[in-house]
Amino acid sequence: MRKAGPILVTGGAGFIGSHLVDGLLAKGYAVRVLDNLSTGKWSNLPAGRDRLELIEGDIADVDVVESSMQGCSAVAHLAAVASVQASVEDPVSTHRSNFIGTLNICEAMRRAGIKRVLYASSAAVYGPNGEGQAIDEDTPKAPMTPYAVDKLAGEQYLDFYRHQHDLEPAIFRFFNIFGPRQDPSSPYSGVISIFTTYARDAKPITLFGDGEQTRDFVYVGDLIDLLIQALEMPRVEAGAVNVGLSRSTSLNQLLETIGSLVGGLPPISNAAARAGDIRHSRANNSRLLARYRMAEPTSLRDGLARLLNG
Ligand code: NAD
Ligand code: UD1
After folding, report:
1. Which residues line ligand 1 (CB under 6 A)?
2. Alpha-carbon gap, residue 86 to 64, rounded angstroms
3. What gap in Å lies between CA 224 and CA 230, rounded to an integer?
4. In this entry, which stretches build a coiled coil (predicted)?
């Protein structure tokens, strides 16, 4: 699978993307990053590295996507508005990035003759359907937010390109990924980045809802190994793959663990649950374990400790 051309990582200046770039560089790949720096930062990436090209541009711009793809051997498509809440507030601009951008990637790959693409879909596509049980990939989809609608549509377009144009999409439905470089600066940021930063800085925390909602949190380092396997495997089987650990943690439990690591918690207030928020989300990860090699996953406590000490 490894060819001379670079791997194009869209969204490579962001949280997950920058860890993937590190992983690819460490394995000897050349990498080209396309990012509009809406939430990502070049400072997330190593400076002055051979084999790393940076392009500032928007995946909604066909010409930028097409020129960025020239000479690449594969694509990891991670660029998106990652916040579910941002998509509720502004569906149109989210759609430009998350849907139009994905379609542009598919078309540019077809024209360039590039086959392999990783796609960062989301557990959000299941909506409330899996609540109360571990969600497997065949669970009926019930997207409840513009974010989830666009992610599901992106998956379906990739399926179309697989049938029609022999693209080789490896579609992953990430559950809640956390770790260093997840930006805590917006109210829409990932909950662990906000809670750990605020706990460390003794700033008041807001819990939307009663804190009994649950998530399946995955440490980013455990995800990167899987993504690189998907780039390297000889053949990608059809069908999206959940990336979760089948571990359920409530926000109240999360706060308790963070409190025990930082030696106490700041004041916590409750606000109304967010529109479109999913109550319980936990992966059935049998397909992941059948298709990919997975080392012992990082425990939530160890991942939080690494994040807090990093
Ligand atoms: P992030 O915001 O840190 O990364 C997204 C990156 O994409 C940023 O660098 C941003 O600047 C860039 N970007 C956004 N719109 C763009 C555009 N139109 N053109 C070019 N670049 C653009 O978020 P993340 O958590 O690293 O998410 C990466 C991917 O994984 C996203 O597709 C997200 O939907 C998906 N995902 C994340 C999680 C999670 O828990 N973090 C879970 C499920 C899926
Ligand atoms: C997250 C990801 C999304 C991904 C989905 C997959 C981010 C920003 N979002 O969405 O890309 O597709 O997982 O499962 O990475 N909360 C608080 N207080 C806060 C912030 C959040 O109580 O200050 C609550 C939210 O209301 C929600 C929970 O924490 O109930 C998780 O929120 P968030 O981290 O934004 O993640 P998801 O919405 O699950």
Report:
1. 11, 13-17, 35-40, 58-60, 78-82, 97, 101, 120, 122, 174, 176-177, 190
2. 24
3. 10
4. none
Distance CA 227, CA 254 (A): 26
For residue range 99-153, list pLDDT tens digits in order: 999 999 999 999 999 999 999 999 999 998 877 789 999 999 999 999 999 999 9
Q: Which residues contact 115 (CB under 8 A, 6 or more apart)?
A: 74, 109, 166, 167, 168
* Residue ranges, CATH 3.40.50.720, the chain: 7-177+218-243
**For ligand 2, what atom is nearest to the CA of residue 211?**
22
**Residue 1 confidence (pLDDT):** 43
Beta bridge partners of 251: none
Q: Return the pLDDT at 277.
A: 86
- CATH superfamily, domain 7-177+218-243, is NAD(P)-binding Rossmann-like Domain (3.40.50.720)
pLDDT beneath 50, residues of the chain: 1-3
Where do you find CATH 3.90.25.10 in the chain?
Answer: 180-215+247-289+298-309
pLDDT value of residue 22: 98
Helical residues (DSSP H) of 8-83, grouped into ranges: 15-26, 62-69
Q: How far apart are CA 66 and CA 113, in angstroms?
A: 12
- The pocket around ligand 2, CB under 6 angstroms, is made up of 82-84, 122-124, 174-176, 188-191, 194, 206-208, 213, 215, 251, 274, 277, 281
pTM for this one? Answer: 0.97
pLDDT of residue 48: 85
**Domain 180-215+247-289+298-309, architecture per CATH:** Alpha-Beta Complex (3.90)
**What's the pLDDT at 187?**
83
